[in-house]
Amino acid sequence: MDRLVRADWFGPLLVTLVAVIGMAAFSPSFLSPLNVQVLLLALCINGLIAFSQMIIIAIGQMNLSVGAIGGLAAISFAGLMEVWGVPAPLAAILAICIGLIGGVLNGFFIAWTGISAFVITLASLSIFKGINLGITRAQPFYGVPESVKAFGNTTFLGPLPWLLIPCAIVFVATWYLLNRLSLGRQILAVGGNEHASALSGISVPRTVIAAHAISGVLAALAGIALVARLQIGQPTIGDDWLILSFAAPVIGGAVLSGGHVSVTATLLGVAIVAIITQALVLFHIDPFLVQVVLGGLILWAVGVNRWREVRVQRSLKRS
Amino acid sequence: MAEVVFEARGVSKYFPGVKALENVSITLTKGSIHALLGENGAGKSTLIKIITGVYRPDGGELFLDGKNVRFSGARDAMGAGIGFVPQERNLIPRFSVGENIALEANSAHPLKRIDYATINAEARRWLKMLDLDIDPSTPVSQLSVAKMQLVEIAKALSQRSKVLLLDEPTASLSPHEADVLFGLLRRLRDDGASIIFVSHKLEEVVAICDTVTVLRDGNNACESRSMAGVGRQDLVRLMIGRSEQIPEWPERDSIGKPAVLELSGVSTAIGHRDVNLTVRDGEIVGLYGLVGAGRTELAKSIMGAFAITAGTMKLGGKPVRIASVSEAIHQHRLGYVSEDRKQEGLILMHSVLENAGIAVWRKLASRLGFLTDRTVRTKVLPFINKLEVKTPSLEQTVGNLSGGNQQKISVAKWLAAGTQLLIVDEPTVGIDIKSKAYLHQLLRDLSEAGTPILLITSDMPEMITLADRIVVMNDYRISGEITNTRDYGAMSEGIMQLIHADAA
What we know:
Chain A: Keywords: Cell membrane, Membrane, Transmembrane, Transmembrane helix. The complex is a heterodimer of chains A (319) and B (504). Helices cover 75% and strands 1% of the residues of chain A. Chain A has 319 residues and is mainly α. Chain A has a two-stranded antiparallel sheet. With 504 residues, chain B is α/β, with parallel strands linked by helices. Chain B has helices at 44-51, 74-80, 97-106, 116-129, 145-158, 175-190, 202-208, 232-240, 295-302, 325-330, 341-345, 352-357, 361-364, 373-386, 403-416, 433-448, 460-466, 488-501, and strands spanning 4-15, 18-29, 32-38, 59-64, 67-69, 82-85, 163-167, 194-198, 211-216, 219-226, 259-268, 275-280, 284-288, 308-315, 318-320, 334-337, 421-425, 453-456, 469-474, 477-483. At the A-B interface, helix 9 and helix 10 of A face helix 2 and helix 3 of B.
């Protein structure tokens, strides 16, 4: 039992369950198929965004450019299909490559110059966004094929969106990476103690580049999914990702200095944010307050993490 | 002669403007514990970095098992069989014991699957070899410091090291834990391991080492010499080129003087119980104890950083309650020279003037909060001059000065603030012998001139040089007090007895 309580996902799971039950009790429409579909779609796309940041948090850095990379991948995906008529799967692969390149560039410059990730990704945020606006002239690409639109908006087995399938695969793969694959453990090791990792034969620059590459790919996937969902290639895709990308991992108990993230708890963090956003809508609360609530949620989560940390230290001291 | 496992022959290393090592040699035989000694700045850490592959030597050669080797980096040296347990903790806190031990093995292939069952089984084997009863799946962050140390040794052993280099392994261990470690090292030696043991604690070196290499000013003061018949004083002579000298200062009697600081029955929020301590006008009271005994924490409690939960604290005879460090400095004129001058004492990237003036800004600022460099300068300069801080100008960045000069600025800062009591924590760590003697004279003069000092140091000779009375702390309690007669043998024995009094 004690182990359960101490697990990262326990608190968020409790909050999620209470929120779901509470919402369902107050508003029966909350569990309607349509609403469940909307919730799951939000969970998929926001999950990708959160994971994109989570990988970088794991290595003890931050990536301010997740939104810019995702946005660039999104408009590339839509643009390739509209302007050159590239088939959707190929366009998606190319867009993923763009995300990969963006991430590798971030990682390369961080590892090579030793400048903090904050500064490098702040600069690359501006560059990627600038390229985005240069290509689109701030105008959306409307020519998204019907098949893509359908993929982002139809369901199977009742309320389950088709998008859930690729996203679920990515989520499981990320869990496997961070818990079972050498590369994932190396990312966490570098985040936990860079010096010790280097002395244990881990190549820190290579690991940093790999983490940013994965982050770029995840951001691109989120961008592509959002194009399918919105049915247009909006140049503004990615602009509002930043807060969410940090909020979910932090709610999931991630340590911002690195070395510890939880895939399950981060996903629950995404769910909590999605449910609360929905709640505001269902209860006719000003949607512009969402940001305020999100900010409060981050503070609360950080507070809880800090409290748990202090408690662990105390119990260590006593023993 | 036993089989030679590792040898560094005529190694030199130069840095711009400095020669760190010149023609230094060390020879390691199978089944021995070899002490590597030297003062700070003697070149010890440079030699360690050469042996572990971090630096490449500018001259000389390294031999492992008789073969000439060149390490291209730390990983290379590790792969060749140099196991290194560095001074700073070197484990991934959130990872399990097993995974930490296997980290090196798992770093080879990024896409390799991590098999926890195998990792734990393998780890269990090494832990068992060290008689360690730890479940390999425990996260390292839940272990005590001593256990972490042993896990690091297990990790180094698991890499099938031919040479095991331990840098200050006992720095954060209790005497009992250190004994366990020594037992283990002896057993490893008897099984044929070659161990390099780096320590500042000469008693330990005398107790467990078979051979010794001492460095002085980047040269061999002695090379791979047998420890048979070598005593503590011999080692000191080798390290500093002369015997340890306790200056011939007259004993001072401060019994009748008024008490400046008086703690009676004090308990603190971080665990001190029933602490009684008096510092009188014009004296230096030494607070001795092992790392983790609670000395720095007591100092910080006096400074108001941790709450005093029971008992009374009197300053100049009046009971006080200090709620914050700011209050201690500004209202009660207490000064604290931190043990960690780089982290807590000085702002390295700021100038000498800004650092020395930081504690008086509030006093000097005009009513509107304006503060000019000139006002600060007039206040601070006399003390900078008095302490003979060697700096090209007051605008010099403190980070560019030597350790000794940095420490003088930390002291000057408090003198400028006009403290009534100065708490000095490990004042000479990382400072060369000459500056050390100078700082000692300085602290002595200060106390003579009326600023009583509470001195915290783990350096026994320093304690016996400076303190008028020595109070011994153990496990957050005062375990006794002795008046310092400056007789090194008698005093160190007395202190050690007080430390081990309740441990036994």
